[in-house]
Amino acid sequence: MSVVGELAREEGRLDAARDIARRAVSTARRTGDPTLLAFDQSNLAGAELLAGDQVRAAALADAAVRLARSLGSSWVLPYALVVLAEVELRCGRLPQAEAALGECAEAVALTRDPQVLDGMRRLSEELAAAWGHTDRQRFPRSAGPGQAPDEWWGT
Q1: 10 Å Cβ neighbour count for 68?
Q2: How far, CA to CA in Å, does 89 sit from each of 24, 115, 123, 137?
Q3: Which residue stretches of the chain are H helix?
Q4: Average model confidence (pLDDT) for the chain?
Q5: Structural contact between residues 88 and 96, judged by C-beta atoms closer than 8 angstroms
Q6: What is the dihedral angle through the alpha carbons of 39, 128, 10, 88, rounded to the nearest 10 degrees?
Q7: 0.85 cut: is pTM over it?
């Protein structure tokens, strides 16, 4: 369901993406798999954010991060954190976005997930611009897909 929802989102079918993501969360709850639930809550948070429901997106992203932290999962925590960072950034909460990306930078070293690293680079550039740091970014461009960033600088 996650892949189908992602495709719907990429095609701009936001209502379908939200519906699929909601069904995925419901299915994850029924299966009792907390890692899957955290992942699907993150996906739903992203769909809600794109649809303009920042309040719901923030609540879902926060719940996904709290659940992922409690699991100590090596892969779902960085994914949930990058979604939370995007929600916080879109809501204009720059310090919270900064904190989520900082925690993600620490957690992603466990997985080196290319999707998470790409999201971190994109969001860190946007966050740097939002802070007024347009002359630099948080992750150097030399860090390629699947590689941990070389450094993390603060504001």
Answers
A1: 26
A2: 25, 18, 8, 15
A3: 2-10, 14-31, 34-50, 54-71, 76-90, 94-107, 114-130
A4: 84
A5: yes
A6: 50
A7: no
Please list, in sequence order, all residues whose beta carbon lies within 8 angstroms of the beta carbon of residue 111, skipping any fewer than 6 positions away: 74, 75, 78
Close Cβ partners of 85 (under 8 Å, ≥ 6 residues apart): 97, 100, 101, 104, 119, 120, 123, 127
pLDDT tens across 7-39, in order? Answer: 898 898 999 999 999 999 999 999 999 999 999
- Kindly state the tokens that stand for 15: 């209502």
- Cα–Cα dist 62/8, whole Å: 23
| Structure-token pair, residue 23 | 């069904």
Question: Does residue 5 contact residue 21 with C-beta atoms inside 8 Å?
Answer: yes
Q: What is the pLDDT of residue 79?
A: 92
C-beta separation of 111 from 140 below 8 A: no
Yes or no: say if 128 and 140 are a contact pair by the CB < 8 Å rule: no
pLDDT of residue 3: 83
SS3 6: helix
CA distance 8 to 72: 30
* Token pair belonging to 89: 């950034």
